[in-house]
Specification:
Mean pLDDT: 81
Distance between the termini: 116 Å
Shape: globular
Number of strands: 13
CATH architecture of one domain: 3-Layer(aba) Sandwich
CATH topology of one domain: Aldehyde Dehydrogenase, Chain A, domain 1
Helix content: 40-55%
Structural class: alpha/beta
Order of helices and strands: HEEHHHHEEEEHEHEHEHEEEEH
CATH superfamily of one domain: Aldehyde Dehydrogenase, Chain A, domain 1
Length: 305
C-alpha cells in the first residue's frame, strides 16, 4: 500500500496524454511549477536580447528553416495530431500543418517590408521629420487551446519570432506532446534553443507564466479563463491581445537634446515613432529666407521710405 501511495503522489507531478479514441497512453510530461516556468521565461529573455539585434531579413531566413522542418516532417506531425487531438488526418493536414506552412511562408517573405521603418508625411512643420520604427516587445507568453494545438500557437510563435521576440508556450494539458514536437522541429532548424520554450502543466502553470514577467500574452480559450487572464495581465501591466506582438513608443525631439518619451500600446507589431527637428542646410536656407522676407515687409511699412 505504501508503494502504491508513493506512485500516486508521483503521478500528480506528471500529466498523462491519451488517445481520445482508444484511451491508449501516448506519453507523459511534467506538471511544471512556478519556479520552472519563471526559469523558462528568464532563459527566453536572455536569448531574446541577442535575437532582437539580428536584422529582420536574417531573422526571416532563419525562421524559414523552421517552416522547412514543418513541411519535411508533415506526415509525422499529422500522425501525432490525429492520435493526441482526435482529428481526422485530412483535417490535421489542412487545418493545422499546411495552414502554418502557408502562414510562415507569407510572413517570412513579407516581414522585411512589414517591419521596415515608415516615414510619416507632415502637412505642416516641414522642417521636421517623423518616422515609425518597429522594435520587439520582449518575451511573448502563449497559452494555447487543445482543439487547435499546433495551428494557433505555432502561428503566433512564427510571427513573434519574426518581430524579434522570445516565446514561452504553455500548451493545453490535454495535448502537450504536440507542442513538444513543435519544439523538437524548432531545435532541428538551428534557431537559438532558449528563444522558444515550452512549459507543460495544468492551469496554475498558465497563471505562473503571466506572473513570471512576460511582456505580452496571447491567449485562446474559454470566456471564463480569458477574463482571468485579462485581469492578471492588467494587474501586471502585461498587454493581452491576439494580434501582432509589439509596442509603439514616441520620441519627440526639438532643438534641445532632451527628449520626452511616451509609451503607447499598439495592436500591431512593435512600433517606435521618432519626430526629430531637421537641422539640414535646406532647413537653414528656408529660415534665412523667412527672415529676409520679414525684414523687407518691415522696411516697406516704415513711413518716409
Amino acid at each position: 500500500m505504501g508503494a502504491l501511495a508513493s506512485s500516486d503522489i508521483e503521478r500528480k507531478d506528471r500529466i498523462v496524454s491519451k488517445n481520445p479514441a482508444t484511451g491508449e497512453v501516448l506519453g507523459d510530461v511534467p506538471d511544471l511549477g512556478a519556479a520552472d516556468v519563471k526559469a523558462a521565461v528568464a532563459r527566453a529573455r536572455e536569448a531574446q536580447r541577442g535575437w532582437s539585434t539580428v536584422p529582420v531579413k536574417e531573422r526571416a531566413a532563419r525562421v524559414g528553416r523552421f517552416r522547412d522542418q514543418i513541411v519535411q516532417r508533415a506526415a509525422e506531425l499529422c500522425e501525432l495530431i490525429v492520435r493526441e487531438c482526435g482529428k481526422t488526418r485530412s483535417e490535421a493536414l489542412s487545418m493545422e500543418v499546411m495552414l502554418i506552412a502557408d502562414l510562415a511562408t507569407y510572413f517570412v517573405k513579407r516581414a522585411p517590408k512589414i517591419l521596415a521603418p515608415e516615414k510619416i508625411p507632415l502637412h505642416l512643420l516641414k522642417n521636421r521629420a517623423s518616422y515609425v520604427h518597429y522594435v520587439p516587445r520582449g518575451v511573448v507568453g502563449i497559452i494555447a487551446p487543445w482543439n487547435f494545438p499546433f495551428g494557433i500557437p505555432i502561428g503566433e510563435t512564427v510571427m513573434a519570432l519574426l518581430a524579434g521576440n522570445g516565446v514561452v508556450l504553455k500548451p493545453s494539458e490535454i495535448t502537450p506532446l504536440i507542442a513538444l514536437k513543435a519544439k523538437e522541429l524548432y531545435d532541428a532548424s538551428g534557431l537559438p534553443a532558449d528563444l522558444f520554450q515550452v512549459v507543460t502543466g495544468r492551469g496554475p502553470a498558465g497563471a505562473a507564466l503571466i506572473d513570471a514577467g512576460i511582456d505580452y500574452c496571447v491567449f485562446t480559450g474559454s470566456t471564463v479563463t480569458g477574463r482571468k487572464v485579462a485581469a492578471a495581465c492588467g494587474r501586471l501591466s502585461c498587454a493581452p491581445t491576439r494580434t501582432w506582438i509589439a509596442r509603439r513608443a514616441r520620441w519627440c525631439g526639438a532643438a534641445s537634446p532632451t527628449r520626452a518619451r511616451c509609451a503607447c500600446r499598439s495592436s500591431a507589431s512593435t512600433r517606435t515613432r521618432r519626430c526629430t527637428t531637421s537641422w539640414s542646410r535646406r532647413s537653414w536656407r528656408w529660415r534665412a529666407s523667412c527672415a529676409r522676407r520679414t525684414r523687407r515687409r518691415a522696411t516697406r511699412s516704415t513711413p518716409g521710405r
